[in-house]
Amino acid sequence: MSGSLGRTPESLKASGRSSEKLSLPILQGKIKRDPDGYETELQLIYKQFKASVDLFQQQAALSFSSVGGIGSDPSVAKDLGDRAMFLAHVTPFYPKQLAEFPAQLTDLLRTSCLAMPSGLRNQVAQGLILLMNRKSLVIEDLLALFLDVQTIGDRNLRKLAFSHIVQTIRKMSVTDPRHKGLQKIVISMLEQEDETKAKRALVTLCELLKKKVWLGDRHDRVAIAICEACFHASPRIMVSSLRFLLDYENIEDDDDSDASDNDDDEDSKHESHVVINREAVYKANNKGTSSSKKKKQAKLQRAMKSIKKKQRASSESSTSTYSPLNHLNDPQKYAEKLLSRLQTGKSIGKTSERIETRLMMMKVIARTIGLHKLQLLSFYTYLQNYAKPHEKDVTQILAAAVQACHDGVPSDAVKPLFMQIVNQFVHDRSRPEAIAVGLNVIREMCLRIHDLMTEELLQDLALYKKEHEKAISAGARSLIALFREINPSLLVKKDRGRPGGPVAKPKQYGEANVFTDVPNVELLQESDHESDSDDADEDDDALELPGSDDVDQELIPADCGTEEEAEEDSDDDMNNTEDDSDVDTSIGGDEEEEDMNDSDDAETDSENEDVESEEDDDGDESDSSAEDSGSKGKANGKKRKIVDFDANLLSADTSLRALKRFAEAKSEQPSLDENDGILSNEDFRKIKDLQAKKEAKLALARKGFKVPDSDQLSKKRVNPAKLEAHIRHKLTKEQRMELVKAGREDRVKYQSRTATKQKKVGGSSNKQKEHQKNMPLGAIRSRACRSKRTRKMKSKISATQFRGRKAWK
Fold first, then answer.
1. Would residue 352 be called left, alpha or beta, if left means φ above 0 and alpha means ψ between -120 and 50 degrees?
2. Which pTM value belongs to this model?
3. How remote is the C-alpha of 804 from its chain's centroid?
């Protein structure tokens, strides 16, 4: 037989064969060094491989019923795996001789995968991976095969095939455009009715989306396929798809937290935009009494927190708000179809859905409505069945209700659900936890739809601010703070707070703010105008009145005089002092206003006649209200020019005239279109810095918060945990023990004082050393005399003492 195969003793000796069996690893190394000299040995091993395949298939047909595959002769499977790996390594050196080998190995794994033992499956799969890496096999055929073999119950093979598919597509996405064609294969397998294959295809798509390989508008069909998997015939596929859509944003947060270096760089960049006046910091630490210093320091801390919170929200808006639901072609149809399946309560198997599955469907529908601002009015009616305090996971249901609210929904459609939450959660006989959750949900719903609240209901809910429970009082105070910003007229006078500008009014249904210019470009124009007039050192001192678009969203200090008055004040101030501060000095004015009584409003008329006060040391603030000017003149006791004060008083008394003068001054300013109309990157960077300084001024000048716009609210996911703020949940025994152990970490072990002394090391104490000292001679003699007298006295007493009658007498 050796002659028929063309073998010679020299070739067998060169191949390293000591007996009838070849040493494949040694032969493999020699073939890689000299492929032409070992072609005969290659043909021999290739024929042995074919024979091993035929023998394996015959044994598999005979013992097909065995569970572990070929159990009678394991050497056949071992020889087959060794020869398959050998041929996979040397295939690139013999492309013509082994042209059919990749197809044969692929057919072997496809047809006989179930009959193979686990070790042989892994060897054949590794051989196919090696052939694909050497470009001897087409990736499309191998991808479909590896998706099929993952359905077998072999854990090692499933892990190997899945990791290879993900890594291969990830590498191809950088250089090879063929990876887009692989999407069709995976998506077509997801659409099949076979549950196991569809599950593996869904897992593959989700992993590639989490790895940000098939992410973005170019791969929108991947996100659409995952969303459409919610309507799969298999309940397991539907639940997996729903869970991925809900948890995707949490996965994004985890990925962002892993990149600590990038976060540190971003934080350092954001911190550069936080601008706090040096003068305000100096006053908070060095000026005034101890109580006033504490108030000023607390005010600075609140300002810093609010500024950082806004900057953090703006930085996270571009990354953490992405969801696969953004790529839906017809979100209205998708939400209606999912709601119809939820309302029927029946799946394909003619059984009702579990409460967990229905809850996930509610949250996906609400998320879709919020992202795309859909009109799905029947969804709010459906939520009324679950908006009850005794329902399981009611906080998540209420979070879904809040998520589904936006300014495009008419208030009449949400009013029944809103009133049911009010009646079911917020009443005197309800538990404190339910009242706190109800108040928080009411606040979030009114934040999105302002017309839901009525005056009588708001005044009733505001009374809960006096409750002893912190969660209830905090919820009521947050509701009052919200309506101070959006509609103060619904509150009673004592809850409206100190007026700081025009009274805000809620938007009407369908009303929207339309930008006619670049946002905040007026800040750049003002800074350029001041720099041209050689006032660059005071470019951030005056707090300008925002445009009409911002009036409905934030409270504005009433210091909006005309340009001419501001220039006169700045010219007079330059003659006296120089101010190098960056923030408006209205902090001191606010602190003085807090200490003054409400009787200043009645004294403004008398102060208009005989006011004699000097200019302020700060001098860079143009007073626009009679109350501010009167209070400062009374508190500081300094003189002010009569002309400037009368002009400011007139502008404060006639707020309409002040607004008209501001509009005329704004119209007189040259627009960007008159110059060139083009903003550079430096201009946008400067606008960003000026906006940060303006936010710092507003944060220092007032309390409260700025109401976010509807787009930010729709993109941001509602966290159910925030609806339970300040609520103390009952701890389990394990949690209590963890708290106890955490408090004992820095505490030393308890020991008695005697035990501590016994373990003492380092010599005797000072008290012991005193007993070992030699006493002076006088002390020694005195002690001897005292002891002698004591003994003499004892002997004298004992001699006269009666000891009883003797027994022998």
1. beta
2. 0.65
3. 97
